[in-house]
Amino acid sequence: MAKTDDVVDVAAGATPVESTLGYEQARDELIEVVRRLEAGGTTLEESLALWERGEELAKVCRRWLDGARARLDAALAEGLEEETEREAE
Fold first, then answer.
1. Exposed, middle or buried, 9 (CB in 10 Å: 0-12/13-18/19+)?
2. pLDDT tens readout for residues 7-30
3. Least enclosed by CB within 10 Å: which of 6, 19, 25, 57?
4. What b/e readout covers 39-67, taking b as 16+ CB neighbours within 10 angstroms?
5. CA angle, 55 as apex, 45 and 37 as ends, to 5°?
6. Mind listing the pLDDT tens digit for each residue in 48-88?
7. DSSP the chain
8. Cα(73)–Cα(67) distance, rounded to whole angstroms?
9. CA 65 – CA 50 distance, rounded (Å)
10. Rounded distance, CA 67 to CA 61, Å?
11. Is the distance from CB of 30 to CB of 58 less than 8 angstroms?
């Protein structure tokens, strides 16, 4: 996991959220960002940078979850189609 100072540096625009970032990595970093924001003690600039990083990380998590939902829906639909075909025989 990134150090908390790295989160601020990244959130300031040094490195965009990579599309290769895994769900668990993005989630864990998002948890750290939220923890830092809730703890306070950061400057306005740091808080804004953390907020922006959190928004990016939330989008990564959302994409992973949407993809997982689509895969589950496809698998369920395929299973239902196979069951319907067996019943028709």
1. middle
2. 444 444 435 666 689 999 999 999
3. 19
4. eeeeeeebbebbeebbebbbebbeebeee
5. 50
6. 999 999 999 999 999 999 999 999 999 999 888 877 877 88
7. ---HHHHHHIIIIISPPPTT--HHHHHHHHHHHHHHHHH----HHHHHHHHHHHHHHHHHHHHHHHHHHHHHHHHHHHHHHHHHHHHH-
8. 10
9. 22
10. 10
11. yes
Can you read off the two tokens belonging to residue 9?
A: 């540096």
Tokens of 79: 């299973």
Q: How many residues does the chain have?
A: 89
Residue 56 carries which side chain, given as an amino acid letter? Answer: E
Using the structure block, give the residue that is written with the tokens 């239902």: 80
Both tokens of 36, joined, read: 């830092």
